């Protein structure tokens, strides 16, 4: 049996960061086992705008949820990357830094030493933020919004969209200014609130996707102490001894239709993502005894927290028909040969145009609008304390999220805009991107940043090939629907305020599911018909004290086992307030340092 120092399960976003850093020492032998394939040469992976074409293909696990009671029993799908680079190979590239408050909340939850101050260096170690050109700075409204220029110096290349002909970004920023949500803080140090145009993980020189496989793996793939096997699905972790002296010593995996085993002399590191890291643990006998025994899996460590605490921010929104003469990218979505030819020509000749950009044009992190007035603040206070008060059975993280909802300096929603139609009501990411209407649109979506509803993901059998049973339980906490409805209601203001309103066709069309709403209850009904995942699941192997729902401690070691850690999105005890890939990279960088220091 081959022996490595470290075996990493999953060569995704986090797995490749840890593999790169651990193999910096030529004496350390590292093995990465990745179930998906290597798509480094795949043009649709490399093309930033190519991601919708990757969904529901062999590059996407394409999980299915249980019927979502809070969303009219709709059954939905969840994309997750099945590729070297994992979800960073198929994501939509937006790269934003989370709020300091949401990272500090990790420490408040009992994770001493995991706060903004300690994690910030790892954000800067994992990416390099490229300054926009002077012309772009003006167009994107980015003056004075970069505080850490030159501070970031990591492998992921992050750049700003250059779209000088588009009227949308400027109009977005000016409209939010008028509504009292002018930009405050800095976009790269966790203090951003208000409207801006976000950067993306796109290499500014090549205008290609900058992701884990390209930046953390490809440059070091010749290291003789680093072995990466693709098409290798881990079926279980191998152990020696019994709890409490249980030790992880290797893995069993399926490769080329054969079951193989390799040994790890130091550690097994789980990086299979928020949906499948708990699956790997459960298949290996770490989880709820009730679940494991029902599938005949011997219990090695009883911990009912594995696979629980699942948090996933949802989105909904409205598409608005644009005024005549305003250009959008709907033609690409409809597959019109003329639009595709023009975009490809721009991309190939001058590396410009929509193919080289992330889908999202602008975002805005906002508190609920009600906090702008005295009466509104009273209303939200009552909502939190009288209508939906905290219960003793609430998960621990509610205690830190609830005060943030009433804080006007924090955001509870993230609004974002892109210049194309969205097919709200679809139950899949691919369906959402379907462009069926012949007119052109701009879409404004809202994402609920820290939902109080939690779900779970567990194995559905003892067969590693079976998909896990996934239930997000979206909107089952009543406060989520109330907050989400208020964020969606703000769309009425944005789209009737100058200069944004001038970009819209008066009495123009809306997306098919839209019907004018008369009040919050109508908005809630619309959300139940249209909301879906924004593909940021976290917290299923939470870093928390075990009695508060934890699976790993602050050293990321799995409770009750030696030599076994988890290093991916599943350890985040609370979703960071932003798109989350930046935090996944930062956590993985820090995990690598923690592991290295354990062997010094
Ligand atoms: C469609 C989509 C769009 C997104 N858009 C954005 C965005 O614009 N901005 C942003 O910040 N975030 C975005 N995200 C989220 C972000 O990409 C993820 O949160 C992040 O990449 C997760 O990293 P991870 O390491 O936890 O998991 P992953 O990157 O998913 O890695 C897990 C890896 O483990 C492998 N694996 C699983 N089980 C096994 C097994 N048993 N054996 C071997 N290998 C296994 C998987 O194939 C995968 O490669 C998006 C995600 C998706 C799916």
TrEMBL record:
Which molecular function terms from Gene Ontology are attached?
Answer: flavin adenine dinucleotide binding; oxidoreductase activity, acting on CH-OH group of donors
Q: Which PROSITE patterns match?
A: GMC_OXRED_1, GMC_OXRED_2
Give one Pfam family, short name only: GMC_oxred_N
Q: Which domain of life is it from?
A: Eukaryota
What the entry lists under InterPro entries is as follows: FAD/NAD-bd_sf (IPR036188), GMC_OxRdtase (IPR012132), GMC_OxRdtase_N (IPR000172), GMC_OxRtase_C (IPR007867)
Query: What are the record keywords, sorted?
Result: FAD, Flavoprotein
Q: Which cofactor does it need?
A: FAD
Occurrences of domain Glucose-methanol-choline oxidoreductase N-terminal (ranges): 81-104, 273-287
- The residues that hold FAD are 13-14, 91-94, 234, 535-536
Q: Which family is this protein grouped under? A: Belongs to the GMC oxidoreductase family.
Q: What is this protein called?
A: Dehydrogenase
Q: Which organism is it from?
A: Lachnellula occidentalis
